[in-house]
Structure formats: C-alpha cells, structure tokens
Batch of 2 targets.
Target 1
Amino acid sequence: MCAFFRRNASSTYREAMPATRVNKIGGAERMAAGARVKITLRCDECKQRNYNTVKNKKNTSDRLERSKYCPFCRKHTKHVETK
Ligand SMILES: [Zn+2]
C-alpha cells in the first residue's frame, strides 16, 4: 500500500513583466550653447552700422528690428539686424 503524495502542482505562471522603456528625459537642462549670436544693427535709412549687440537666436529667430538713434540721420530710425 503505497500512499503517493500527490502534490498539487501549483503551476503559477509568473507573468513576465514587459520591460517598460522609461525614457529619462529632463532633469538637467541643456546648456544653451550658441544661442546668443553677435549682430549688428544697421540704420534702415542711411545704411550705417551704428550698434553692435547680441541676440538670443532661440528667442528671436527672425530678424531683429529696433528703433534706435542714428547719429548720421540725427534722429531715431529703424535699425535692422545684419551679420
Ligand atoms: Zn541713419
């Protein structure tokens, strides 16, 4: 008389956890290198280059326009950006 111990083979499938890809973006801010560029402001009327300044290329992607005093025109004129 043999008593076989039948163990209930509890076959619990371990659900394979899908490897969730976690893209680690963010945290440290990127160094904004090269965003500031040197420009020259040129008078739109007499085409004289009167001012040197810098602008942030990220914030001001289009051409910069400023009303500045031109000593040649002796008044405030529109100055546009040149390289
Ligand atoms: Zn001018």
Target 2
Amino acid sequence: MYSSKVSNNKNQCSNGVKNIIMIISFILIIYLMCFNFSIPNTKSLHTSVTLQNDSSSSSLSLSSDTNLEHIVFGIASNENAWSARKELVKMWWKPGRNMRGCVFLEKMPPNYTNNANDSSLPPICISGDTSRFKYTFRGGTPSAIRVARVVTETVALNHSNVRWYVFGDDDTVFFTENLLKTLSKYDHGLWYYIGSNSEHFLMNKAFSYEMAFGGAGIAISSPLAKVLGTVFDACIERYPHLFGSDARIYSCLAELGVGLTHEPGFHQLDVRGNMFGVLAAHTLRPLVSLHHLEMNDPIFPNMTKMKSLEHLYDAAKYDPHRILQQTVCYDRWFTWTVSVSWGYAVQVFSYNIFLPDALRIQESYFPWQTSDLARHYDFDTRPYEPDPCKRQLVYFLHNVSTGIKGQIKTIYRKKTPENCTITMVSPRRLEEIRVVSQKLEIDRKRLLSPRRQCCDVLSSTSRNVMDVAIRECKEDELIFIHP
Ligand SMILES: *[C@@H]1O[C@H](CO)[C@@H](O)[C@H](O)[C@H]1NC(C)=O
Ligand SMILES: *[C@@H]1O[C@H](CO)[C@@H](O)[C@H](O)[C@H]1NC(C)=O
Ligand SMILES: *[C@@H]1O[C@H](CO)[C@@H](O)[C@H](O)[C@H]1NC(C)=O
Ligand SMILES: *[C@@H]1O[C@H](CO)[C@@H](O)[C@H](O)[C@H]1NC(C)=O
Ligand SMILES: *[C@@H]1O[C@H](CO)[C@@H](O)[C@H](O)[C@H]1NC(C)=O
Ligand SMILES: *[C@@H]1O[C@H](CO)[C@@H](O)[C@H](O)[C@H]1NC(C)=O
Ligand SMILES: *[C@@H]1O[C@H](CO)[C@@H](O)[C@H](O)[C@H]1NC(C)=O
C-alpha cells in the first residue's frame, strides 16, 4: 500500500513538472507576443518595459513624475460654510503652484468677489441646477446630489493633461506631497478609484466597506473620471434613496464594474473629541488627508484648531513623508518604551510594552454616536487609562529645525500639567524630548513595500531631556524589549 502510494506520488510529480514546463512555455509565448505587438502603443510599451526589467532596485515607475499640475481638484462646499471653511483649504492649497480645480458652491456668497487672482484659494464654480433629480432619503439633504455632481462638473472644466481628479469636502485637508506619492504608485492611464472607508464600524456597515468616504478624499484616474462623467447623470437617477454624495459616486462606479483601491493614508476621521490615538498610530503609508478637524478638539493642546493644524503643517514642510510616522524604541536602562509619532507627539511609557501593543490606537476619542455598537471601530485599539498618573506621558511638537548635516530636529514638550509623584525611575522628570532624523525619501521600493524605521534612545545630555535618533533599521533588525 505504502509503496504504491509513493510511486503514485512520483508519477504525479513528473506530471507536475511537465505541466509546469508547459505553463512556463505558454507564458513565454504570450509574453513574447504581447511584447512584439504592443510596440506601437505607447501605454502598453510602458508596461512591457516594466515587466521586462522588474528588478526591485529599478527606479522605473509609470507615473513618478506626477505632480500637482497633473491633478484637478473638485472641492464641495456651500455658500454658508465657505467663508469659514476656506481657511482650511488655504492650509493645503499652494499658491503659485498652478493648482487646478474649483470649489463648488450653490451660489455666490453675498459681498464675495470671486477673486480669480487670489492663488491662495481655488476659484469658485457655481454648481449646476439639480432640481430635476429626485432625492428621497428621509432626513437627508438633497444637496448630496449637487455635491455628487462635482465629479461631472470638475471633469467638464475640460482641463488638459490631467492624470487624476481628486475630490474632497471643504473640511478635508490634503498633504499634497503624500497625495502625489500615493497616486504615483498607480498607472493613471488605467481605471482607478482610490480612497478609504470610515474608521467607524457602523458607518462602514451602513454605507459600504468598498465605498471611498468623501470626507477622506477620493482620487479617480482621468480615463475613469471621463467615462464616469458621461454616465453619471443617468446613473444617479437610479439612486434617489441614498443618503450622501459619496454613496452615489460609489454606486455609479460599481455599475461601471470598478472597485475601490484602499489607501489608508486617506482619513475620514469619524471619531469625536480627542483624536490623539488615531493620529499617533498612523499607518506606514504616507498621510494623505485629514477630515473633521473643525468638529473635534484641537490636535495640539493649548492651541486653537487652526493654529494646531498650521503647527502640523509646519513639521510636514520639513519632512512631508515622515509626518505622523511612528517609530518605537526601548530605553534599556530605565525600561521605558518610547514611541515617536513624528512631527506630532512622543509618548513615553514608564514600563515596557510590546511593540504590537504600542502600535494600537489608544481610545482617546469618544464615539461618533451613542449606541453600544457605536463604540466599535475598524482598527486595533488600546484602552485609554483614566488616571493621568498611570497614563503614558505625552510630549507634543514644540518646534522643528534643520540641524547639522541636513538632519531634522524636532522638539516635543509636555503640555498638560498634572500632580503625580515623581520617582527616581519615572520619566516624569523629562520636560523635553529631542528627536533627530533624516528627511524621509520614499523611492518606489519603499512606496510599494514600506518598512517602519528604528530609533535609539541616546545617552542624555541633561536630566530633563531625552534625546532620540531615528534611522533606518538594519536588514535583520528587530524592534523588541531588551531583556
Ligand atoms: C535592467 O536593469 C538593470 C539594473 O537597473 C540594468 O543594468 C539593465 O541594463 C536593465 N536592462 C534592460 C534591458 O533595460
Ligand atoms: C454687503 O456689504 C455692504 C457694504 O459693506 C453692507 O452694507 C451689506 O449689508 C452687505 N450685505 C450682506 C448681505 O452682507
Ligand atoms: C486680476 O488681474 C488682472 C490682470 O492683472 C486684472 O486686470 C484684474 O482686474 C484682476 N481681477 C481681480 C478680481 O482682482
Ligand atoms: C468642455 O468640452 C465639451 C465638449 O468638447 C463642451 O461641450 C463643453 O461646453 C466644454 N466645457 C467647458 C466648460 O468649456
Ligand atoms: C525651538 O525651541 C527651543 C526650545 O524652546 C529653542 O531653543 C529653539 O531656538 C527653537 N528653535 C526654533 C527654530 O524655533
Ligand atoms: C498655553 O499657552 C499660553 C499662551 O501661549 C502659555 O502662556 C501657557 O504657558 C501654555 N500652557 C501650557 C501648559 O503649555
Ligand atoms: C495640583 O495640586 C495643587 C495643590 O494641591 C493644586 O492647587 C493644583 O490645582 C493641582 N493641579 C492640577 C493640574 O491638578
């Protein structure tokens, strides 16, 4: 019995080898055919070249030269909100960079001149009339149709040389360098619908895990947006019962057979109150967008919402790709855990916590809704310690500067005074954390396969100061609690 089984296996083996050889030759033939026939077509040529030389060190990329001039933005706002919300748009709309696109309002605000010469803001476009479309969602706002049609109307601006259309709300702020980096992963000549869903379990359940939530921003490649533009009005007739604009865009793209490409750097931020936990445990992908900043606490304590957002952008100016990127190291001497969320905050735990736990999102916020289920988020969490004397210490960004040899130096300071006893081994005596790092360059390899960096707690220059250096990890380096 046993031996017959073995010989059987042998037979299968040699059959398997034959099959594999046949498959390989088949692939080779197809490949040669494609390569020969695709030369006149420049688009396929690009693809073939990448296939032909797909060495990982190759810097070949399809759209690495994508820049702001290739993007057209469609921002949805309204007459009443615009005068306040334009301050948020000013945070990321870059004057003098030939940025293209419009902010769409239902009508011009009174006493407002559409200053076409003001390059610090996008021009105002007046949305087309949508009264012919039915809207039947109870308690919803029919303006969802106007906002959804921002897609059509942005494409209809007829800009040339467009690679991506990017849509957002007036309270979406983008980190444009990271938006470009993220989009450059994809071939803009193909159909892409890129974004992310909500952090909130109920929101995703109610809408869809496959829907790009509008507040987080939605990127649609040019050829797809053009097709979507031509079918959109006919399509949304079928969805009067939906609540929002993003659900309409999602539905019409689904009808075109296109699914969502998830990019976790886009943030809908459906959390309320203190967003600290979410910001301090950012994904390894670059930060593309933030949302709902106006309805939540300022992201830095002791600062206004606007000022604190400016503060974050200050750091991002020095090192856009590193902003919020989290690095963890362990202090051997005192057994502390140090977690740097670059450009934002440093957390110091007076004990060692395992790396996977340090990477979880602390529940610093409160839920968007009050039901029991509303406390469920679609990410990993770690509880918020109510006792401030047991909670980890948090140091917030104080300032950024360029140091020696192009190093970037960020200083973090404690913002919230508390009355806790200070022991010899407590990090509580630390008043300031200084972090040095090199500007983070993301090449194609890093973009496609990101890896967390490492850090070291340096021997300190003062009792009240901790010095930390961020660097690339060694090939086989592990980030762990040293015994
Ligand atoms: C493939 O890439 C390698 C390394 O970048 C380069 O040396 C080689 O010339 C390339 N081959 C072709 C056919 O482009
Ligand atoms: C427009 O501006 C004028 C002069 O500044 C002012 O008298 C008027 O009330 C303003 N109208 C509105 C609607 O704000
Ligand atoms: C914009 O600039 C042009 C040329 O410099 C000028 O003629 C025009 O009056 C300006 N428009 C506004 C609204 O300032
Ligand atoms: C854009 O081009 C289309 C077709 O060429 C034309 O019908 C439309 O009026 C143009 N829109 C604008 C704003 O120029
Ligand atoms: C940053 O803050 C430190 C401490 O307050 C100060 O000494 C330094 O001059 C500041 N640097 C910049 C560039 O503001
Ligand atoms: C808060 O800000 C005020 C004014 O800038 C400053 O005087 C105060 O020291 C700050 N408080 C803390 C705890 O940083
Ligand atoms: C700390 O304790 C002192 C004295 O008991 C008190 O006056 C002060 O308000 C306390 N500060 C905080 C932040 O609890």
